[in-house]
Amino acid sequence: FSLASNRRIDDGGVTFRSHLDGAAVRFTPESVVDMQRRLGVDVAMVLDECPPWPVTEEQAAGALERTLAWARRAREAWESSSGNSTQSSGLFGILQGSGFRRLRERAAAELAALDFDGYAIGGVSVGEPEAERRATVEWTAPLLPEGKARYLMGVGTPQDILHAVRSGIDLFDCVLPARNARHGVLFTRSGPVKITNARYRDDPGPPDPECRCPTCRRVSRAFLAHLARAGEITAQVLATVHNLAFYLDFMADIREACASGTLAELSATGPTADSA
Fold first, then answer.
1. Taking the CB of residue 191, how many other CB atoms lie within 10 A of it?
2. Distance between CA 60 and CA 103 in Å, rounded?
3. What is the CA radius of gyration of the chain?
4. Helix%, strand%, coil% for the chain, nearest 5
5. Percent of the chain with pLDDT over 70
6. Taking the CB of residue 173, how many other CB atoms lie within 10 A of it?
7. What is the mean pLDDT of residues 145-153?
C-alpha cells in the first residue's frame, strides 16, 4: 500500500485497508458478484477501475483494459451462479474511458458483446468541467445498446439529470440529496435553499412551499435554520427527508414528461441552479 492511498489495484482485483480496524480486504470480480448475489440486490455492478481527473489517454486506456477484463470475469461468474439463484436481479457493465471518445467507443462495443442486463457510464463527475462531462454523456449514451437500461453513475443535480435524460439516460445515483442536506442545502423548484442564510432566521414559512413532504408540513424555515446553526443532527435528517422527496417528485415529473412528449418544456421550466 502506498502512503497516499489505502488501496492497491492489480490485474486480479483490489486490496484495501478497512477503515474500522486496518485489516486488508480483497475484492475480485468474482467475489463482488458473489457478494451482490448474497445481498439480493436488484441491480448488480461489475468491479471496475475509475481513473481520476485529470488523466492521460494512456492511463485511461490502462484502466479501461483492466475494467474490460474484470467485466468478462464478472459476466462468467454471474452466469455460472445464476442456476443456483431464484432472484430476478441483473448485472450491469460499466463503461470507462474518461473523456476520450475512442476509448468510450471501444468500451461500448466490447461490453455490448457480453450482453449485460444494463450498461452504466462510469468515470464522469470526478472533477472534470461541466462542459466536458456533459459532452461525454451526449456522445456515450447513444453508443449503448437499445432496449437495455442506461445508467449514469454519480451524476445528480436536477439540471444534469434533465440533460442526461435528453441524451438517453434512464437511471441515476448520486449522494447529493444527503450530502447537501448535511450542509444545510435543500433542493426546491425555484433553486437550492441554503437554510443557514440570515434571511431564514425568522422565516415562518415551510422550507419549500410547493412540497408536501413531512419536513415541509411540520417545520418552518426558522426552526430548521435554528437546528442547523445549533449543529443538531435533526436538521440533517429533516433536510435529507425533504431532498429525497424532492427528487422522487422530480423524477416522477420527468417520467410524465417523457410519456407526454413535454420533456423539452420541463427542461426549460425545471428547477434552477441559482441559490434561493
1. 14
2. 8
3. 21
4. 50, 15, 40
5. 95
6. 12
7. 96
What number of residues does the chain have?
A: 276
* Helices assigned H by DSSP within the chain: 29-39, 57-82, 101-113, 130-140, 158-167, 176-182, 214-218, 221-229, 233-260, 263-269
Q: ∠ CA(171), CA(174), CA(175), 5° rounding?
A: 155
Contact, 44 vs 89, CB < 8 A? yes
Residue type, 171: L
Q: Is the pLDDT of residue 47 over 70?
A: yes
What distance, in Å, lies between the first and last C-alpha atoms of the chain? 45
Please name every residue paired with 173 in a beta bridge, in sequence order, or none if there are none.
153
Per the structure block, which three cell numbers stand in for 50?
475509475
Q: What is the mean pLDDT of residues 18-45?
A: 94
Q: CB atoms < 10 A from the CB of 41, how many?
A: 14
Does residue 235 have a pLDDT over 50? Answer: yes
Cβ contact 48:96 at 8 Å = yes
pLDDT above 50 for 3: no
Q: In DSSP terms, which residues pair with 194 in a beta bridge?
A: 185
Specify the long-range contacts of residues 174-180, CB closer than 8 Å, at least 24 apart: 176/243, 177/240, 177/243, 177/244, 177/246, 177/247, 178/240, 178/243, 178/244, 180/239, 180/243
Whether 5 shows a pLDDT value over 90: the answer reads: no
Identify the pLDDT of residue 81.
Answer: 83
Between the alpha carbon of residue 116 and those of residues 42, 150, 153, 211, the distances in Å are 14, 11, 16, 38
Helix (H, G, I), strand (E, B) or coil at 26: strand
Looking at residues 158-186, what average pLDDT do you find? 96
The per-residue pLDDT for 31 is 98
pLDDT over 50 at 18, yes or no: yes
Rounded Cα distance between 248 and 251, Å, is 5
